[in-house]
Amino acid sequence: MKHAPFIAVEGPIGAGKTTLATMLAEEFQLPVIKEIVEENPYLDKFYQNMDDWSFQLEMFFLCNRYKQLEDTVNEYINKDKPVISDYHIYKNLIFGERTLKGTKRDKYREIYHVLTDDLPKPDIILYIRADLDTLMARIAKRGRPFEEEISPAYMQQLIEDYDDAMASLAVREPSTVIVTIDGNQIDFVENKEDFAAISAQLKELMK
Prior knowledge:
Rossmann fold; 8 helices; single chain; globular
C-alpha cells in the first residue's frame, strides 16, 4: 500500500467492532476512532418507539460521525498517518434505510450524501459477520440497558442489511478491500491464535 491506510471495522450490533478495533490499534500502535453510542440521548426512546424517534436518533449519529470523520481526515489521513475506526460512515445509511420512512428517509439520504460524498473512504474494511444467536448472546452479556429492547426480528433484519451493504460497498468502492471475519467461529478475544491470524492478514494488506 503506497499510503498510510485508513482501516474500518464493521458489523452489526454486538459483533465486537470496538473490541477488535481497540485490540488492533494496540497491536499496530495506531490511533483508534470510536463511535459515540451511549451518549446518544435518543437511544432509550428509539428502542421503545422506533417510529417516533428514528429521525432524531439517526441525525444525531450522522452529525457526530461526520465530525469525527472530518477530524480524522485533518489529523491523520491528510498527513498520511494510519488510523483505525470502529465503524464506516456508510453504516448511517444501513440503519437509516431500515428505520426511516417516506419523506424523512428521503431527507436523510440527501443530508447523508451532502455530508459524506467527498470524504475519504476506508482502504480496508474488516467485516465481522455473525448469526442472530451469537449477536443476541453478546448483546445480553454486555448488559447495556437501552439494548434490552432490541428484538430478534430487528437484529435478523440488520444482519441481512449488513450483508447487502457489504456487497454494495464492494461495487461502490472497488478500491476498498473487504475482509469478512466469521464471528461465529473466530473468537479474537479469548483465542490468541484467532487474533494473531487477523493481525497477520491485516499486516499483509497494509504493506
